[in-house]
TrEMBL record:
Protein name (database record): 4-diphosphocytidyl-2-C-methyl-D-erythritol kinase
Taxonomic placement: Bacteria, Pseudomonadati, Pseudomonadota, Gammaproteobacteria, Pseudomonadales
Organism name: Marinobacter mobilis
Family in the record: Belongs to the GHMP kinase family. IspE subfamily.
Active site, per annotation: K10, D136
Record flagged with keyword Ligase: no
Pathway per the UniProt entry: Isoprenoid biosynthesis; isopentenyl diphosphate biosynthesis via DXP pathway; isopentenyl diphosphate from 1-deoxy-D-xylulose 5-phosphate: step 3/6
Catalysed conversion reaction: 4-CDP-2-C-methyl-D-erythritol + ATP = 4-CDP-2-C-methyl-D-erythritol 2-phosphate + ADP + H(+)
SUPFAM superfamilies named among the record's database cross-references: GHMP Kinase, C-terminal domain (SSF55060), Ribosomal protein S5 domain 2-like (SSF54211)
Gene: ispE
Domain GHMP kinase C-terminal: 207-256
């Protein structure tokens, strides 16, 4: 039997950096929303305890791939030997795009294998394991749009409007660690207080990485300037993707069709329940 599950993208509707901890990690305030667009992962049980990924991602050795790392981490936490799994990856999300593709893949693996291997680990345990793999994994494990604080792991469910987005991927890959180590990065935005449910307009707030990223990568600035003509546009995470918000699919598609030639991206709906959790609920 093959189980196929979505591994959606996220957007940071805004991202404030409030400080830097002694261990070098940054304290953030950010609003996460999922997109109804992403990778797919298919799972098939094996009998020999091996974790096998196909196809591999060029440039990412399997032992570094968050898919295999998540499967191995979960196996270590099982009280009984696990049967192993074949995982097939259908990658659509650009890497190093700020869309959280690797983190989302890890979360899909944790939830899928918890189900297939009948481990019965609860969500808190899976989120805690996920945090060992990356700061963004817990939000994908929990599956609800969220207001995040701490280094991104203190999550409060949120309900931002489910708008449509044009997402553009400028032709550069951005390393998260590189942006956080830039000298000119804004790190002192005062903490804001917002209603826990956050139903307001996130585009009032900025992404503190935007200035540094635009300075280092002029192609991001170009895409941002172009998309900003039509409404609020922002960088997601530490980039490179930028997004513009539209009230309807047709409004988003009109802008998408008029984009300068050569630029990649997609149109997708913002959703407050992860497509992964929607699909898992249908299986029950
Ligand atoms: C800032 C965000 C917003 O969503 O950026 P994106 O990666 O999505 O662009 C994420 O929280 C990133 O999460 P993730 O990509 O999982 O980061 P990690 O692998 O944990 O960290 C990569 C590196 O970024 C830096 N880092 C990351 C998160 C954080 N709060 N402070 C940091 O200083 C650290 O140098 C760390 O070594
Ligand atoms: N399954 C995976 N999918 C994508 N990237 C992965 C994966 N496993 C490891 N990585 C590494 O994580 C890096 C960040 O990828 P990704 O999560 O897609 O971007 P971002 O953190 O910018 O949203 C990649 O450049 C790659 O080296």
């Amino acid at each position: 039997m093959t189980l196929t599950l979505p591994s959606p993208a996220k957007l940071n509707l805004f991202l404030h950096i409030n400080g830097r901890r002694a261990d070098g990690y940054h304290e953030l305030q950010t609003l996460f929303q999922f997109l109804d667009y992403g990778d797919d992962l298919s799972f098939e049980l094996r009998g020999d305890g091996q974790m096998v990924l196909s196809p591999s991602i060029p440039g990412v050795p399997d032992e570094d791939n968050l898919i295999i790392r998540a499967a191995r981490l979960l196996a270590e936490h099982s009280s009984h030997p696990v049967p192993g799994v074949n995982i097939t990856l259908n990658k659509r999300l650009p890497m190093g795009g700020g869309l959280g593709g690797g983190s989302s893949n890890a979360a899909t693996v944790l939830l899928a294998l918890n189900h297939l291997w009948r481990l019965n680990l609860d969500t808190d345990t899976l989120a805690r394991l996920g945090l060992q793999l990356g700061a963004d994994v817990p939000v994908f494990v929990r599956g609800t749009a969220a207001w995040a604080e701490g280094v991104g792991e203190v999550l409060t469910p949120a309900q931002p409007p489910e708008d449509w987005f044009v997402v553009l991927k400028p032709g550069c890959d951005i390393n998260t660690g590189k942006i956080f180590s830039q000298e000119g990065l804004t790190r002192d935005t005062p903490r804001i207080k917002i209603a826990p449910a956050f139903e307001g307009d996130a585009s009032r707030y900025r992404n503190d990485c935007e200035d540094v990223v635009c300075r280092l990568y002029p192609e991001v600035r170009k895409s941002l300037d172009w998309l900003s003509q039509f409404g609020p546009a922002r960088l997601t995470g530490t980039g490179a993707c930028i997004f513009g918000r539209f009230p309807t699919e047709s409004a988003a598609r009109i802008i998408w069709e008029s984009k300068p030639s050569g630029i990649k991206g997609f149109v997708a709906k913002g959703v407050n329940l992860s497509p992964l959790h929607k699909k898992l609920a249908e299986l029950k």
